[in-house]
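[Meeting: bench + compute handoff]

Bench side (C.D.) handed over the final construct sequence. Compute side (W.E.) agreed to return the predicted structure before the next meeting so the bench team could plan truncations. Sequence as handed over:
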Amino acid sequence: MRKVDPLKHQAKLQHILEAAVACFAEKGFRGTSTNEICAAAGMSPGNLFHYFPNKQAVIEAIVEEDRREMSERFAQLAEEPDAILAIERLAKDLLKQCADPVYAKIGVEVVAESMRNPEMATLFAASEASIKGDLVTLLRRGIAQGQIDASLDPKIAATWLIALIDGAVSRSVLDRDFKPKAYTPTLMRMIRRFLE
């Protein structure tokens, strides 16, 4: 039996996911066929199925990759002594991603698919719970350090902060005039006034 090189295997997985994301951003999860993903990745269906058993597994891997990246972001933010600055940095980073039409379309597509597909809904809910949990931890730290208004309920505040960013993602897809960079200063002011 041939040994699998873990680095090459991971690189191939990443290549497939990038090809799939481009296809999904163009045609949506339901409108994209496995053959289109294979063509974009430059591989045969048999080769693709060596990495992912079906299209659903590809979608799940994309959601999991996003959840992992968000966890890494929160781990870095934990080192920021000022909780409000950490939250502002997170919001700025996410707004920058909104400027990427592929990222924004995939974000909207994930939400839409989670409303149609119970498996996707479960995966999306777990990802959202992880992100919200990390944000609640950050808010609680800010409250404990006297940086954030102690009268705020961290869970409710986290929900509203997530809703703001989700709204920016939707806006960037639906409104051609929405330029995240131009709107960033106002968002930072809203976040700071809300939290202080």
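W.E. noted at the follow-up: The CA atoms of residues 31 and 167 lie 24 Å apart. C.D. will use this when planning the next construct.
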